[in-house]
From TrEMBL:
Transmembrane segments: none annotated. Residues 1-335 form the Aminoacyl-transfer RNA synthetases class-II family profile domain. Belongs to the class-II aminoacyl-tRNA synthetase family. Pfam families: HGTP_anticodon, tRNA-synt_His. This is Histidine--tRNA ligase. Keywords: Aminoacyl-tRNA synthetase, ATP-binding, Cytoplasm, Ligase, Nucleotide-binding, Protein biosynthesis. HAMAP family: His_tRNA_synth. It comes from Hydrogenophaga electricum. The gene is hisS.
Amino acid sequence: MAEKLSAVKGMNDIAPPESAHWEWLEERIRELMRRYGYRNFRAPIVEPTALFVRGLGEVTDIVEKEMYAFEDKLNGEHLTLRPEGTAGVVRAAIEHNLTYDGGKRLYYIGPMFRHERPQRGRYRQFHQVGVEALGFHGPDVDAELILLASDLWAELGLQDIALEINSLGQPAERLAHRQALIAHLEAHADQLDEEAKRRLHSNPLRILDTKNPAMQALVEAAPKLMDFLGAESLRHFDTWRSLLDKQGITYRINPRLVRGMDYYNLSVFEFVTTELGAQGTVCAGGRYDGLFAQIGGKPTPAVGWALGVERILELLKAQHRLPEAPVPDAYAIIPEATATETALGVLRALRQAGVSVTMHTAGAEGMGSMKSQFKKADASGARYALIFGADELAQGTVGVKTLRAAPSGEVPVQVLRPLARPAEWAASLRA
């Protein structure tokens, strides 16, 4: 017997009824994106490795430890399964000159890949919804992205999601802060853990995001980037905050919020929750005005965010906001195989009229008894059973039996419907 194969650890199958929750969430996201004027974009799952090394930063956790990078056996190209979506969108915008006629508002939904320890809401293949506003300078678009995410939480009925914001300023300001930060940390080198020592000169900003309790006092006493911001950076930050204030958006300024990619500048933000344990960030992003030039394009302002689909679904589940799994409107009971041809035609007409119908099909031992078929009809959750029995068909009809009462309290009944005109009674079957 062949060896049993399983999915790769941390890369999960998504089957019904769970997949219906994914479809439900994606439908609501797509509709909200439409209303905000964001258009769908689809990039390849595999990109040149250099795109992420140059775009995200050589000393980021993603590039150093988490990427699925490999060499193409056919031509020797160095390729990577995308660990995030922004770099690919920017690569495509440069390659196809997408912003030649003005700014573009784009969104994407799809899988990303990072080699890390699987845990609740965090997997090796995970899914993101990302929005990218390309070619827009002002903090008004930064504010729009916050409103977009906030409206999504409201439409999904989610609570306990808090917004944290910060400003990373511009490169020269970050450099001055970096030097002061290194000096502070070097002066207390005996308090640094091994990870912080490794990052001290390569990426000291990430030390501010440490979860090590023994380093919290040291980090709190570190120089604040906000104290190094110039007038333009402060003006951008203050205007952004003012726009959020006027829209009634509540937030907390978190001076330790630095994000994990090197390409961010000015506005950065995270939406966080206390209901998912260590994986508390459900949506995050910021401005990345330097990324276009960093990977070979013309300087172009841009801002965006990404949310984790698995984390949002976990939160919806925790807050009992997921809808019931969808059920068919009707289940077709076919006592004899000779009725299958007629049933197929009638059911097709009903489906074309918008009715969801599950058809009973023959097993190894035939169609099965009426009793067993009614059990399957009831188990399907359908409100109606359509009976293609010999007596019904002889009268040119289909039997329609109500399996469960309607929300209005309608009493279950059985009626006959004309076989030749299913479109006329289709509306009465839709739950």
